[in-house]
Amino acid sequence: MTIYRAGPISTGGIALSTCDTCGAREETTFHALVECTYARRFWIRLRELTGVKLPNLNPTSWASAILDNRICGVNDQTINLCRMWSVWRSRNDHRHGKAPIDMAASIDWALDVYFHLNAAREKTDGK
After folding, report:
1. pTM surpassing 0.90?
2. What residue ranges do the domains of the chain occupy?
3. What are 5-20's pLDDT values in tens digits?
C-alpha cells in the first residue's frame, strides 16, 4: 500500500512506495494521475468520448498548469479535474480492497460530474 506525505509542489509529491497498478518504482501523485498505465488508458478513453485532450504536463508544474486558462479553457479544466478525481478514487478503492477498478464506471462518474458542474456554471453565468 502506498502512503503519501506532502512534499514540495515542485517535486510532484514524495514517493514512498512502488505503484500497485503498474509496478513503477516511484509512485507520486503525478504518476498516479498522469503517468500510470491505468491513468493513461483512462485519459485515452475519455479523450475518445469527449474530445478533450490532457495538456502536456510535467511533474514540477502539473497542478498549476491544469488550472491555467492559457493552457486549457474552463470546460477542459473541469473535465480534466473530474478525470483526475475519478482516477484517484478508482485507485484508492482498488488499493483498499473494494471492488476492482472498473474503468467504464469511473468514466461514467467523471462525465456525470462534469455535466453537472458545467450545467451549474452555465446557470450561474446566465447562459
Report:
1. no
2. 33-125
3. 444 434 455 555 788 8
